[in-house]
Amino acid sequence: MFLRNYLFPGRYGPEWGSGGIFGLRYHNGTLYFTLAFEAEAHFIDVSSGEEKTYDFTLLGEAPTSGGDTYNAVETVDEFIYFGGWVHAPAVYREDRRILFNNKYSHVHAYDTEEGSVKLLWKDSIHHETDWAGEVSDIIYDPYGDRLLLAREDGHANLGVYSLDRKTGRAEALIHEPSPKGTRVHDTAFFGIGNNFTEGLREFMALDLISGKWETFKPGESADGRPYIRPELGAMSSAYNRAFAFVRGGILAGNPFMGEEFSFYRLFDFYTFYAPFRVNAINVGGGILTAFNAHHDAVYRPDSNDSGIGWTSTNTIAGPSVLVYIAPPMVKIVGAFGARVTSIEKMGGKLLVATNSAPNTGAREATPFDTGNRDIVILDEKILQERPPAVSFSLPLALPSMAKELGAGTFGGFPLDGYRDPRALFYLSGDNRLTVYEYDLSLPAGEATVETFELKAGKNILDLSSFSGIVSFELEKLEKKGKVRVELR
């Protein structure tokens, strides 16, 4: 396969910072993706290489901007259903603001047989600063032959909606904000909560046969320690369980088969390093997704939060990593820059869309996209090869701050495939380190715990005697030191 366009520098597209390449989906001989913030939907006939581009003007007048920033896409029969949000037309002000009067949430359908685009549904509240909930996920219900829409990012019309794919009629099923969902057996699980204030609060599950809803709380951590702000990035299913990829780790389980949701700490740095604005796909019976280093960020420090928001979103603890989930194994299979935005499998290859820049905040809009976006093509065999060497570096002031809030256990480094991993602690004073060792067992098992005495200065901890996943906790607060973990 040859992609005529695979590199996209920033062009006109008023919004907050950078969007990305979203919704990568190969279906019925067509490769689809949306380029944001330019609001361009691309459809490539893989056999001929012919490429069509749609600018979302069925929603309103040009110039449009936006598109999709959560990978809202589903396929049924000959159709590719793609959703998200679009400004039509975009209105940019020179005080670094964008007006939202013309912002629409949408679902379109692309007919792969006819090569045509149809607007199926749209919604807007036509407000200057607020907007209707974006479509952040689309899930097909085979029993009801309908589309289930998850909507969390916005100010009105949030929740889970049912959309008739023939008439375009939508109705709200619940009004709790939901960014993502996944289908397990005959149930659709949805993560509930606001990602920018609290993270995932609970799961709500819809029985696709009876229409009944049930609610479940996230469970305890496999390492036995508290966790905070599990912002929800992606969901998927395998092994008859739902997997929710959140800031700080993974929540996995299925109460309908007698197993509560458990939290597995993974890449928990008390920054906004998270599996956010990326999808998760099934490959080889497992799940492939990414944890991103820099997906959303505060561009200018704000005195109102004492710089905490700037620090937590701009501390780059490590590269973005592509991770393969095949319980009890969690394996790093790729290392990338600021963020991975979309993943798809096609013809023995993995397509990985990336971006060099994050989304930014409300008064940090630009009249153009600020990132460089591209598509990297990898061979599926990376799932079976040794993982790449990666390193992470974290100021210990962040776990110490979290410890004052009742948390403080950090890390969750997957060691599978590494022969000589180690951790280097640079401390301002003597301290005691607790290491928690666990894996992604289903159902969750208990962690093994070991303690080590560390001295002021440089300490090297050999991790080769550990297996699975390890997380750390320091007994005393450390405001000046740092830790560097090298997986090699």
UniProtKB/TrEMBL annotation:
- Judging by the UniProt lineage, the source's domain of life is Archaea
Q: Could you tell me which SUPFAM superfamilies the record lists for this protein?
A: Quinoprotein alcohol dehydrogenase-like
The UniProt entry, under InterPro entries, shows: Quinoprotein_ADH-like_sf, UCP016666, WD40/YVTN_repeat-like_dom_sf
Pfam families per the record?
Answer: DUF2139 (PF09910)
Name-wise, this protein is: Phosphate ABC transporter substrate-binding protein
Annotated organism of origin: Thermococcus gorgonarius
